[in-house]
Amino acid sequence: MKKMKVLVLAASTAILSIGAVASASADQLALATQRGCMACHQVETKVVGPSYKDVAAKYKGQADAVDMLSAKVKAGGKDVWGPVPMPPNAHVSDDDIKAIVAWIMTL
């Protein structure tokens, strides 16, 4: 009986954790949408710019990835993912950019 209680507690904790992660992802996706990022990017497919999953895969394991990518998002860039440049996003706050990039790196 004690094992059953432990298993139920563990399963409940796992389900709640998944819900919290899904909620955080939904919040970050909403933020990216509000800031205009989703006009050129999608989570799983390339649109004008690379998919967020491709970005996460390319920079996986780089300790400075969030800071480096946040700077690129703010300033804009070119010739990294093809011929279409990414315009600067000076209108988006540094905190919002960092939150979006940090989320992307979890994908």
Question: How would you summarize the topology of this molecule?
Answer:
Elements: H1 2-34, H2 52-59, H3 65-75, H4 94-104
Task: Explain this structure.
The protein has helices at residues 2-34, 52-59, 65-75, 94-104. It has 107 residues and is an all-alpha fold. The chain has a single domain, classed as Cytochrome Bc1 Complex, Chain D, domain 2 (Orthogonal Bundle), CATH 1.10.760. The chain is globular, with a radius of gyration of 17 Å. The model is unreliable at 6-21 (pLDDT under 50).
CATH architecture: Orthogonal Bundle
Average of pLDDT = 84
From the alpha carbons, calculate the radius of gyration and give it in angstroms.
17 Å
CATH topology: Cytochrome Bc1 Complex, Chain D, domain 2
Task: Tag the structure with descriptive keywords.
about 110 residues, mainly alpha, Cytochrome Bc1 Complex, Chain D, domain 2, 4 helices
Quick summary:
The chain has 107 residues and is mostly helical. It has a single domain, classed as Cytochrome c-like domain (Cytochrome Bc1 Complex, Chain D, domain 2, Orthogonal Bundle). It has four helices and no strands.
